[in-house]
Structure formats: C-alpha cells, structure tokens
C-alpha cells in the first residue's frame, strides 16, 4: 500500500529542488534558495525517517519536525513572493501543496498521540 504522506512529501521536495534551480538560474538568487531548499526537502526526509521510528513518541517527534519544516518553508515562500522572486501563480501553486502537507502532518500527529 502506498504511503500518501511519503509520496506527497517526496513530490514536494522535487518541486522545491526545481524552484531552487529556477531561482538560481533565472533570478541569480542563492541565499533564499538555499534556505528553502533545506527546509522544503527536510519535510520528506523527516517523514521517511519517521517510518523507522523506534517508538510512537519517536514517530510523533519526527513528524513534528517535518511539520516545523513545512511551516518554515511557508515563510520562505511568502518572502520569495513578497520580494518578487516568484510570481503569484508560482507562489499559490507551491504554497497550496505545502499547506496540504501541513494539514496531513497535523492529522497524523493528532491521531498518533
């Protein structure tokens, strides 16, 4: 059976990598792109790590870290949009994906406690 949060967080990480490639190539932006690369790809890394958790508390902890990284990613996305590095269309598209990840993570965390 396919793991929805693992699939969606990996697909989101791919979008983040492509966004960073765009920012570096087309906007010559390296500082903010490194920040969003770290937080945006960390979501999936922590989700994947949670699958091998040693306990329920460890599982919840890993997913809580993923949620924090998702919230940080939302901040960087808002900043990139506010400073005209990304268009409104780009912002809304990737922001919605990030928001969906956050909602799924909150749901899993709540049901696992």
Describe this structure in words.
The protein is an all-alpha fold. The protein has helices spanning 4-26, 31-50, 56-82, 88-112. The two termini are 23 Å apart. The mean pLDDT is 97.
Quick take:
The chain has 113 residues and is an all-alpha fold. It has helices at 4-26, 31-50, 56-82, 88-112.
Low-pLDDT segments: none
CATH fold topology = de novo design (two linked rop proteins)
Number of strands: 0
CATH class: Mainly Alpha
Q: Structural class per helix/strand content?
A: mainly alpha
End-to-end distance, in Å?
A: 23 Å
Please state the average pLDDT score.
97
How many distinct folded domains? Answer: 1
Helix-strand layout with pairing:
Blueprint: H1 4-26, H2 31-50, H3 56-82, H4 88-112
List keywords for this structure.
84% helix, elongated, 0% strand, mainly alpha, de novo design (two linked rop proteins), single chain, 113 residues
